Amino acid sequence: MKRMGTKLDQILTHTASEVAARKGVADIASMERQAAGHQPRGFAANLRRVAQDKPAVIAELKKASPSKGLIREDFQPVELALGLEAAGAAALSVLTDEAFFQGSLKNLEIASAAVKIPCLRKDFMVDPFQMLEARAHGADAILLIVAAHTDADLKLLRASARAYGLDVLCEVHDREELDRAVQIGCEAIGVNSRDLRDFSVHPETLVELVGAIPGDVVRVAESGIRSGDDMFRLRAAGYDAFLIGESLMRQPDPGAALAAMLGHTVPAGV
C-alpha cells in the first residue's frame, strides 16, 4: 500500500485486520455458491447507456462518515434503494465499511436484491477475498482508491475483480493518480474532489482532470455535488456520471430530492 500518514492510512490498517479476521473463519465454498447465484448487471455499461440521454447518477446509501459523523439517522436500505431507483438513479453505491461509515454487507445484499440497477460495493478494498464477499452479497462493481495502493496491489485487486465479473471504479484525486488508474484498465474512473488529508472539498479538481480521462472510460465526478446546477455544469465539462451521497442522504426524501435534481418526478404510487 501507498502509506499516506492520514486518516486513510488508519482506516486501511483497521480494514486489513478486519478482513483477515473474516477471511480466517469464512466458508469459502458456501460463499462461492452464493456468488455464483448473482449475475453482475454491468455497472459501467449501464452508466454509459443512461449517460447518452441524461446524467447517470450513482446514488449512495451512506449513513455516516469519518468527517461528518452521523448523516442519516433513519437509515432504511431497501426503502432508500427503491426510492432512488424510482427517481432515476442509474446505479447505487452502498457503503459496507462498519467501523467508520456504519455500513454493512447486509445493507448491500438487501439493497441489491430490491432493485434492478447495478450496485457498487463502496469500501476499502485491500484483499482479493473482498471481491468474493462483494459478489456474494450482490455487488456488480467495487471501488479501488488509487492513493491506497502500489501499482502491483492495484493490478492484483483489479484482476481479482475481473475474475469475479465485477467492474471497477478507480478513484483518483490528482493527475498522477489518474495516470496510474489509466494504466491498470478500470471501466470507470472517478475524480474525488475531497482531499484525503483534511477532507476539504476542491471542486476545481473535477474540471482540471476530466479532460485527461480516456474517452472509452466512464467519467465519474465525486464529492461536493449538491444541486442539479452542479451536475449539469460538470456534465458540460465532460462527465458521464455523478456519485452523490451526503446531499441526498440529508434530505427527508432522498428519492424526491434526486428526482428534483434530474428534473422529473417520481412515478405515482412508488
Automatic annotation (TrEMBL):
It catalyses: 1-(2-carboxyphenylamino)-1-deoxy-D-ribulose 5-phosphate + H(+) = (1S,2R)-1-C-(indol-3-yl)glycerol 3-phosphate + CO2 + H2O. The lineage of its organism: Bacteria, Pseudomonadati, Acidobacteriota, Terriglobia, Terriglobales. Keywords: Amino-acid biosynthesis, Aromatic amino acid biosynthesis, Decarboxylase, Lyase, Tryptophan biosynthesis. The keyword Amino-acid biosynthesis applies. Pfam families: IGPS (PF00218). GO terms for molecular function: indole-3-glycerol-phosphate synthase activity; phosphoribosylanthranilate isomerase activity. It comes from the Bacteria. Its EC number is 4.1.1.48. Pathway: Amino-acid biosynthesis; L-tryptophan biosynthesis; L-tryptophan from chorismate: step 4/5. The gene is trpC. One of its GO terms (biological process) is L-tryptophan biosynthetic process. Residues 8-259 form the Indole-3-glycerol phosphate synthase domain. This is Indole-3-glycerol phosphate synthase. Belongs to the TrpC family. InterPro entries: Aldolase_TIM, Indole-3-glycerol_P_synth, Indole-3-glycerol_P_synth_dom, Indole-3-GlycerolPSynthase_CS, RibuloseP-bd_barrel. NCBIfam families: PRK00278.2-4 (NF001377). Transmembrane segments: none annotated.
